[in-house]
Amino acid sequence: MLTGRKIHLCVCGGIAAYKAVETVRLLQKAGAQVQVAMTANAQAFVGPMTFQALTHAPVLTRTLDPGEEMAIGHIAFAQSCDVLLFAPCTANMLGKIAHGLGDDVVSTIALAAPVGRTPVLIAPAMNTAMWENPATQANLALVSARGYRVLLPDAGALACGAVGPGRLPEPEALVAAVMEALAPRPLTGRRVLITAGPTREPIDPARFLSNASTGKAGFAIAAAAVRAGAAVTLVHGPVTVPVPPGVEAVAVTTAREMHREVMARWAVADAIVMSAAVADYRPAEVFDHKVKKLDGPMTLTLVRNPDILAEVGAARTGAHPVLVGFAAETGHPVEYARDKLVRKRCDLIVANDVSAPGAGFGTDTNLVYLVTAEGAEPLPLQSKEAIGQRIVDFLAVRLADGR
Ligand code: PMT
User: Ligand 1: distance of its center to the CA of 209 in Å?
Assistant: First the structure.
């Protein structure tokens, strides 16, 4: 519930502005006091009178309103709420926020917002091509890095006829995001290091050894850890899934690169989750030219890669940092996970049978067991996001326990 909470909503000019009206109603239903500011373009889609009638409060439409109080209204608007929500936020407004421009009431509110003290949520909505434009993506990365929380748009049919990402999430989802922004954040002040995705072990300039990991599982854990308030570093192999907003990403290719980046960071982490599918072996020799095919069979000699999880497990003192590993198996996942838990000195092994339907590499869901010294808890088939949240809940409990 949002009883007594002040939510200030900035509406920009896009067809999705109509959803802002329902968002106000739902926020109020949850107990919030809502005030609205609008750009000039937003007023072409929805009249300020609609919001004024709903909120029983003046709607901020200009930076320089007559009267001393209203002339600084945008500052008070930005600084006197529990959550500041920009929905819909156009590509233009995102660019202004990213680059610190303040040439209208909404962009000046963004400039005056105490990001870091007050949650500032940005819900972009725009045409798919505009969303995918590298300039928009660069602006998103900038605002995320500065602590604004971006609510990614939904994909689907857009008003302009395009189909793809760019739809403003439904009002219910916006209200849920506001509630979540105000929920206790158990990993505030904690540093979480996560590995994700595959590694690639080169054979020659054209070929490599790898596996089918997409990074979905690890990226979902990273997103959940950010939501819980942690400072998250994600060391990941070659993947195409987008880096969750607010995450520091370190891209690597080989197991040895992943090893180097993790070993440089693990000691300052409060918790580490290793979900990457790291190649256990690499070719002994990497050819500097494309290897020509032979008439007969070809032999490739492989040598062991460092076991990053085992090395961190051996190096940590006591239970610091909290250490979580994964186990990808094709049968008897709990049995093997118990062995890894002890051998790699982990607090938790997330075991998945990657041959089970809906589980493992590339799927949106996973079927896992949470294996600790206390026992093995089977989880039902569920999204990798939900499993990421369970892992983060585990970290929060262990860190609070100080075990
Ligand atoms: O990325 P997705 O497409 O979403 O797929 C998710 C997943 C199937 C990759 C994930 O759920 C998973 O199971 N990850 C671990 C895969 C794996 O390599 O398991 P393993 O049993 O070989 O390794 C055990 C643990 O040691 C893992 O935490 C692994 O990150 C770590 N390890 C392994 C080898 C190595 N050289 N260094 C390591 O740190």
Answer: 15
